[in-house]
Write a structure and sequence with these properties.
With about 190 residues, this protein is of the alpha/beta class. It has one domain: HUPs (Rossmann fold), CATH 3.40.50. Helices cover about 50% and strands about 10% of the residues. The chain is built from seven helices and five strands. The protein has a five-stranded parallel sheet, with helices on both faces. β1, α3 and β2 form a beta-alpha-beta unit. α3 packs across α4 and α5 crosses α6. It starts with a helix and ends in a 5-residue tail after the last helix.
Length: about 190
């Protein structure tokens, strides 16, 4: 084996090890890097972002039952109706639930929900989403409505145990890093 080939092999091995270390670090430190929870306070509304129908509705219900807000807005195409059924089935009155079922992205969740919040003269809103999505979601809503105070109270039951996300969440966690970069570059929405 020539010296040139050996150097290339060492470089490829080092690059592969660096990629593995980066992925492992991104997963291991994900709760510290991606999860953003702000102090709890009373609010005018709870906004539940679509994309997941087990932990997010449960968290919104928990906060509603604690009395932190009396209105819930469900945002997101696809599972909007499923989330409404879960909340209504657990005792949230239909009059307390409003839906925005056209948005397909976090940016659209913010853009389509904010006019509803402004129409209600909302001053403080609690955002409920998955723990790994909370940083980008919070900054996205703040970007489009700086006059409204947004509080992030993401899911907690699905937080990583001993730093490692559940197997089902790892793909979502890793893709969140890419989405944070994309939102910064494409839309000018910083998450840090």
């Amino acid at each position: 084996m020539t010296g040139k080939i050996r150097k290339r092999l060492y470089f490829l091995l080092a690059a592969a090890l660096a990629c593995v270390a980066a992925v492992a670090s991104a997963l291991f430190f994900s709760a510290n890097l991606l999860r953003l929870e702000t102090p709890s306070a009373k609010a005018d509304a709870i906004v539940v972002l679509g994309g997941e129908t087990i932990y997010r509705p449960a968290r919104a219900l928990e906060l509603y039952q604690q009395g932190v807000a009396t209105n819930i807005i469900i945002t997101g195409e696809g599972d909007c109706e499923s989330v409404r059924v879960v909340l209504a089935g657990k005792g949230v009155p239909a009059a307390s639930i409003q839906m925005e079922c056209a948005s397909r992205t976090t940016r659209e969740n913010a853009q389509f929900t904010i006019p509803l919040l402004r129409a209600q003269h909302t001053k403080r809103v609690i955002l409920v989403t998955s723990w790994f999505h909370s940083r980008r979601a919070l900054h996205c809503f703040r970007h489009f409505a700086p006059e409204i105070e947004f509080i992030s109270l993401p899911t907690t039951i699905d937080l990583p145990r001993h730093h490692w996300p559940a197997k089902w969440a790892r793909r979502w966690v890793l893709s969140e890093y890419v989405k944070i970069i994309y939102y910064r570059v494409r839309f000018g929405i910083p998450s840090w």
